[in-house]
Amino acid sequence: MRKQIFKLNELTVTPIELSLYVPPIVWKGDSAGHVGINDLFFWVLEGECFLSIDSESYIVRPGQLAYLPKGKMRAYTHVSEHFSMYEMAFSVRANGENLMETLGLCEQNFVVDIKDRAEMTALFENSNLIEFAKNPLHDVSWCANIINIIKIYAKERQKLSGKAATEFKPVLEYMSKNIAEQIKTEDLSALVYMQPTYFIKKFNESYGLPPMAYLNRMRMYKAMGMLAGTEIPIEQIAKKTGFHDASYFSRAFKKHCKVTPSEYRAEFKRN
User: What CA–CA distance (Å, rounded) separates 28 from 87?
Assistant: First the structure.
């Protein structure tokens, strides 16, 4: 977050939409991607989702809050058997300018860990209340909740400037840029000057998955986006996502997504 002198004279909070996705309601996401017209918050309750914002990619897990700035290319999807999340669209302007931009929150590191999950869930739950007799206090509370969510998110973003939060950024960038290549653990550990065994341990502590498992998840999500948004033959998609054996790719895809690549593409077109 950039430091600057800032005096707040006027604040306009606009709640736009809030959705709760819990089974049997299915969150389809958008594997192909689009440019966002609203600021969004994602709060994952169960399962995990893949999120790409411009050139940055994330696997978002429960206990993590994701911010999707408007005006940026975004893609997201999930394949978790049990998945639930809140999605909140909002707009906040301070002195006539986008507050998120003013606070320097619209570039890099869009996913933060939240320590008090119960507090964050309550902020979304309270905003999700639907009353038969419309009560103006509901919108007042929702506006207040949005400000509190932004405050918590901004504080956690401040912590991301520390070494612990940025030490694996070269690894994630390398994975994303070289996803079609054959990558070894030794290649990744060398980027952060760690011994492979120690690197695997520290990466797993930070992301909940060993580095190669994380890379394979990224490959699957990349393949899902290409299947949904292009007409590229499946064999070429396999190569472009690091699976140089198309048959193995199809088996791995079905194991991960419960459908074959061709079935996924057909289902996406129907929807």
Answer: 12
CATH number assigned to the domain with residue range 167-270, chosen from the 4 options 1.10.10.60, 2.40.160.60, 1.10.150.530, 3.40.50.2300: 1.10.10.60
Element containing residue 189 per DSSP (H, E): helix 185-191
In the chain, where are the structural domains located?
11-162, 167-270
11-162 adopts what CATH topology? Jelly Rolls (2.60.120)
Between CA 237 and CA 224 the distance in angstroms is: 9
- 3-state DSSP percent of the chain in helix, strand and coil, to 5: 45, 25, 35
* pTM for this prediction: 0.77
Contact 126, 146 (CB under 8 A): no
Tokens of 14: 């606009």
Model pLDDT for residues 114-150, shown as the tens digit of each residue: 999 999 999 999 888 764 546 777 888 899 999 999 9
Q: Report whether pLDDT(174) > 70.
A: yes
Q: How much is the pLDDT for 1?
A: 45
- The pLDDT of residue 240 is 92
